[in-house]
Q: What sequence folds into this?
């Protein structure tokens, strides 16, 4: 190893982090070439970029108590191994990516044993929504946060004095082109000028069970006001059977979109959307699709969430714009009549639709759409922390 070579350690614990980590590695190497080497924990995408993972990422890629508890001894051992790797190799920088239960525990252990090693967090946990006190705890072991949402830097500075820089959300790099929308319409037999309503009932079984019937009723009510309306549902594999069975009872037959390519095409072909709360509302906003958000959870869980939630809305678009631009219908307010009343003006040439498009254009600007990609912006932060010039 030469004196000019940098050593960056990356720690990820799930597929989404592996994707971000690989893109970050590519962008950093485009500037530094063979002046940088990577180590740590990653998945197949990061390994394809040259990372030799300390152990298989699948050892720690678990969700929920049912998966975690049987593997707890292994996970704890992997935490110790990851910490020991950092302490023994003394990287110039450690970047933890997402999977906070694992990565932040490792970061705290590294900081305790080797406080001189700078640690950056790429994809912060949503401490601005609840558990705000955790931001101050993060400031004790992190040097910097690379944020996916544009309001996060101000939050971390005000709440904890923690250095945070907005680099952009990975969904920015997945915005579909109009041509993909035209291709999707042709493949699915949807007329070029037909209005399209996108229905997104969620990716979890309980979400789909609570929302799929409601969305069918809403779609039928919207169709009564807009002649020729077509309804499209992008389907994720693990709830595919549930969706296919549920839509048999719909009063209007939907078009199902399978896989990432068809989902992209559906987004590009869409006029308006009804969506479950979550990251998908951000994806819709980035695609410039007017929407309403619907969500229902178990009443006890809803009461618990309401006690701890520290933000005025669950819609990311509204948080980014700092105003209620997207209407949300939650719990007992989530009724087909209200949802359809809000959706109907978003289809067609109306002042409500025009205002929604203006709002979403502002959100896209705040998120830096059209500028450097999130992976390049994240790489520039890493380069600056290494004392190198950022990419042009």
A:
């Amino acid at each position: 190893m030469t004196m000019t070579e940098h050593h960056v350690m990356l720690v990820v614990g799930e597929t989404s982090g592996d994707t971000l980590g690989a893109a970050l590695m590519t962008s950093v190497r485009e500037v530094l070439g063979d002046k940088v080497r990577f180590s740590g924990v990653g998945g197949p995408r990061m390994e394809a970029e040259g990372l030799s993972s300390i152990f298989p990422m699948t050892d720690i890629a678990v969700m929920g108590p049912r998966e975690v508890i049987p593997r707890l001894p292994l996970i704890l051992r992997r935490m110790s191994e990851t910490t020991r790797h950092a302490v023994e190799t003394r990287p110039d920088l450690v970047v933890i990516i997402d999977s906070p239960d694992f990565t932040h525990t490792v970061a705290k252990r590294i900081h305790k044993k080797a406080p001189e090693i700078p640690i950056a967090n790429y994809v912060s946990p949503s401490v601005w929504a609840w558990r705000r006190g955790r931001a101050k705890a993060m400031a004790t072991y992190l040097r910097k946060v690379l944020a996916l949402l544009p309001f996060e830097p101000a939050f971390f500075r005000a709440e904890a004095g923690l250095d945070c820089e907005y680099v952009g959300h990975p969904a920015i790099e997945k915005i579909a082109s109009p041509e993909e929308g035209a291709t999707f319409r042709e493949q699915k037999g949807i007329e070029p000028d037909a209005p399209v309503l996108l229905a997104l009932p969620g990716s979890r079984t309980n979400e789909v069970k609570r929302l799929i019937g409601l969305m069918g009723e809403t779609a039928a009510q919207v169709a009564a006001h807009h002649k020729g309306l077509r309804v499209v549902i992008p389907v994720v594999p693990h709830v595919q059977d549930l969706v296919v069975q549920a839509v048999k009872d719909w009063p209007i037959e939907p078009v199902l979109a399978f896989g990432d390519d068809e989902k992209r095409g559906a987004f590009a072909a869409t006029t308006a959307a009804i969506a479950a709360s979550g990251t998908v509302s951000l994806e819709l906003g980035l695609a410039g699709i007017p929407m309403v958000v619907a969500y229902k959870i178990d009443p006890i869980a809803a009461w618990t969430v309401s006690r701890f939630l520290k933000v005025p809305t669950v819609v990311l678009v509204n948080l980014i714009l700092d105003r209620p631009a997207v209407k949300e219908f939650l719990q007992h307010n989530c009724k087909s009549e209200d949802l359809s009343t809000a959706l109907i003006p978003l289809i067609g040439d109306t002042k409500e639709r025009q205002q929604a498009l203006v709002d979403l254009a502002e959100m896209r600007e705040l998120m830096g759409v059209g500028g450097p990609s999130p992976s390049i912006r994240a790489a520039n932060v890493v380069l600056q922390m290494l004392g190198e010039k950022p990419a042009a």
Summary: The CA atoms of residues 206 and 297 lie 8 Å apart. Residues 64-89 form the longest helix (26 residues). The mean pLDDT is 92.
